[in-house]
Amino acid sequence: MPRALPSNSLAAAVRAHFGLTQAELGRYLGVAREQVAFVEAGKRSFALGAERRLRQLVLLLPPEGESVPPATPAAEVTKPLTATELLALRKRLRRCRHEATQLRYQLETEADRTQAQTRRQRSLAHLRAGLLPATGALTAEEERARDWLARLAPTPVHPPLLAGAQGLLVARLQGLTAEANALEEQLAVNSGKLTENQR
Question: Is the pLDDT of residue 19 over 90?
Answer without folding.
Answer: no
